[in-house]
Specification:
Layout (H helix, E strand, L loop, with lengths): L2 H9 L5 H5 L1 H8 L7 H6 L1 H9 L2 H13 L8 H5 L5 H15 L13 H8 L4 H10 L1 H13 L5 H11 L6 H8 L8 H8 L44
Helix pairs in contact: 1-3, 1-9, 10-12, 11-12, 11-13
C-alpha cells in the first residue's frame, strides 16, 4: 500500500469530523516510504492544522466553494481533459474497466475520474504503475496548483505534492492554455445553476457510501496488491 497516495486522497475528500480526527494518521501516512519530500510534507502542514482546528462547517463551505462550484478547480480529472465532449464518456468507461480488471470497486457515488478515487486506486498499485499514471496527469496537477495559489488556498500544497510525485510538469501549450482560461467565479449563481442542471452519470454500488479513505486508512495498510492492468492514461489535450 502506497500510504502517501492514500493520505493525499483523504485530504482531498469532503471535510468531515472523521477527517478532522484522522489528521495525525494522515501526517504519518504522508511520511511513509520516503515518497514525499520533507518540503512537500511541510507545505501541507497549514492545511492539516486548518482541518484539525477549524469548524467543520467552515471547512465544508470552503471546500464546496473551491471544488464543487468551480469547474476550473474540479476534482474530476476528465473535466480538464475532455470537458463536455463525447470523448469523456469513452474515457470514463475505459477507466471503470481498469478498476474492475484490478478488482477495485470504489464504494462512492463520485465519478471514476474523481481524483480522490483515482488516488485510492493508485495507492493499491505497484509504485511504477502509480507514478506513470500520475506523470500523465502532471499538467492538470500543475494547473490546479497554480489556480489554488491564486486563491491563497492551503489545498495548493496537495497538488504541489502530486506534481513532485509525478515529476515536474513541463511547460507546454496544453498547460499554458489551461492557465490562460479565466477562473470560475464560485459566486456566479447563474453559472452554478447551469452546472447543477446537467445530468450526471454515477458509478459504484452504493450511491450513499461517501468517501471511504479516512475510515479505512489504517485497516487497508496490508491490502494485497492486485495483478496490474493496463494503466489509465491521461490524454494531453485540455478543454475547459
Amino acid at each position: 500500500m502506497l500510504m502517501p497516495l492514500k493520505a493525499l486522497s483523504a485530504l482531498l475528500c469532503y471535510p468531515t469530523p472523521e477527517l478532522k480526527a484522522a489528521t495525525d494518521e494522515i501526517r504519518a501516512a504522508l511520511g511513509a516510504g520516503g515518497l514525499l519530500s520533507a518540503q512537500s510534507r511541510s507545505a501541507m502542514e497549514p492545511l492539516l492544522v486548518e482541518i484539525e482546528t477549524a469548524d467543520v462547517y467552515d471547512l465544508q463551505e470552503r471546500f464546496v466553494a473551491l471544488f464543487d462550484r468551480s469547474r476550473t478547480l474540479s476534482l474530476n480529472l476528465f473535466e480538464h481533459v475532455h470537458g463536455e465532449s463525447r470523448d469523456r464518456g469513452g474515457a470514463m468507461v475505459d477507466l471503470v474497466e481498469t478498476y474492475r480488471n484490478a478488482g477495485f470497486d470504489p464504494a462512492t457515488s463520485e465519478l471514476p475520474d474523481h481524483l480522490p478515487v483515482l488516488l485510492e486506486f493508485l495507492a493499491q498499485r505497484p509504485l511504477g504503475e502509480a507514478m506513470d499514471t500520475l506523470e500523465d496527469a502532471a499538467h492538470i496537477f500543475e494547473a490546479l496548483r497554480v489556480r489554488l495559489g491564486r486563491r491563497e488556498s492551503a489545498y495548493g500544497a496537495v497538488f504541489a505534492a502530486l506534481v513532485q510525485l509525478a515529476g515536474q510538469a513541463e511547460s507546454s501549450e496544453t498547460l499554458s492554455a489551461m492557465l490562460a482560461a479565466p477562473d470560475d467565479d464560485p459566486d456566479d449563481l447563474a453559472a452554478l445553476d447551469a452546472v447543477w442542471e446537467e445530468t450526471e452519470v454515477t458509478f459504484g454500488p452504493d450511491p450513499n457510501a461517501g468517501c471511504p479513505q479516512v475510515r479505512d486508512m489504517l485497516a487497508t495498510m496490508d491490502t494485497p496488491r492486485n495483478p496490474p492492468p493496463a494503466r489509465p492514461a491521461m490524454p494531453a489535450t485540455a478543454a475547459e
